[in-house]
Amino acid sequence: MHSKVICCKLYISESQNAAVVDAISRIGQKDPEVVLLNKFEDEYYNRVRYTLVSYINSESATGEAVFSPIRKVLLAMIEAAFSAINLEVHCGTHPRIGVVDDISFHPLTQAATMEDAAQLAKLVASDIGNGLQVPVFLYAAAHPTGKSVSAVRRELGYFRPNHKGVQWAGPVLPDTLPMKPDVGPVHVPHERGATMVGAQPLVESYNVPIFCKDVPTVEAECAPLEANGVRAPGGAEGMEGKRTDQAKLSTMHPKVICCKLYISESQNGAVVDSISRIGQKDPEVVLLSKFEDEYYNRVRYTLVSYITSESSTGEAVFSPIRKVLLAMIEAAFSAINLEVHSGTHPRIGVVDDMSFHPLSQAATMEDAAQLAKLVASDIGNGLQEEQGLEVDKGYFTDLSKDMMLERYFEIVSAAD
């Protein structure tokens, strides 16, 4: 067992082509010394974040500063992405500068240092820039002066939409770059774009969506958070990247609610995609993301819609999300058999958990609780299943450091 453990987050600009996403995932699972902890697919951003963990040594038989098996796996995943994805035909609601948009390295154990992470970042940057001839921009501990990722992005014009005001479509970088890459050619290949590589402490992300188009108001509300080290939207630049579907919901209805639906199946792509399509049928319900965890063998679907306190049926509340959820749940029960399900995370059912979260200021915890009870009745009385529901706010976008380490050592030990 190794004392130095490191994490890498790899962001690939593609989530809508399941075959490509799964092919890259399989490459990330080939080396038993590298653990692909999760794969976070964002359909609106049209990108995937792969989280990998492995060990790192300060001595290398090749004479390089550090060695980690993660380097070879990353290069194979990156080559597969460049072979299968063309940035010229890619579009999404999140900024990006390349097919392989960002790679960040994070020391996880106390023995692993930021210098270890930075050295590995530079080696991977060289593999991409010099080996694959794609411009690479370094940031944070990997950059000679420690330049932040946001500073590099602003210099590159990363936050400026280039399509319909709120979308990023095709290449966004000019042929002549506004600054020289740290590694690789100065010419940007249109089909691949450029890449950013950095090393920094692990940020445990917790997203709280903001439903407001008034940038000064958002900045004023976020100022106290930023003073305490919380990263808030970056003014007008940060607001440009918000999903337009959320904005439409907030302007039509003051009460906006979120639901996270956990289904005990991630390895059957056809089932996962079928349930996703059901979640996208109602224009009043937005399927924000689909987070597939291959080791847990479950998927978290995140849906957003409005909720009203008046219902023509005489019930306490009404939300279109209820009908969509029921259709997704029925599809899950029809396609998944818990008796043959296995995974590394505890679960009590095919539909293992649902949580409801008030998002806008007008939506209350009572609204969320009332909707939770109605959905519980749909399942318990209508589908004859028992289901506990919880209500909270916001959502984590990745595993915590402790969870990463726990699962990494668990999986590596099982492989040994």
TrEMBL record:
Picking any one GO molecular function of the record gives:
folic acid binding
Domain Formiminotransferase N-terminal subdomain: residue ranges: 4-201, 255-416
A Pfam family found in this protein is FTCD_N
This one is known as Formiminotransferase N-terminal subdomain domain-containing protein
